Amino acid sequence: MRGFGGRLQIVMDGGQVNTAAKAVADAHPNGIAPRAGPDYLDKLDRLTESVISEEERNRFVALVEDLDSADAGELIELNPVAKEGVLKKTDYPPGIFDFGEL
User: What is the model's pTM?
Assistant: First the structure.
């Protein structure tokens, strides 16, 4: 299991060096505050409650929970669709994830 820890080093103007490191993220199973599935769903709900509908949230979660059996066509559907008016239109050209109408 990978941990995705990190190391931070700050050099002060006076030359003092402050360093801190973690082998794994706090939410990692071996971290100080491991998270499980329900914790991630709670976080998803907190972060998206004003951005996606409950129906879209449920569709997204169902697809993620069945990801092992998803085919290529379903993988395109992994991006949750925001509520109308949440995202602003821009004049930027299409990006690599702009599939257009499928």
Answer: 0.63
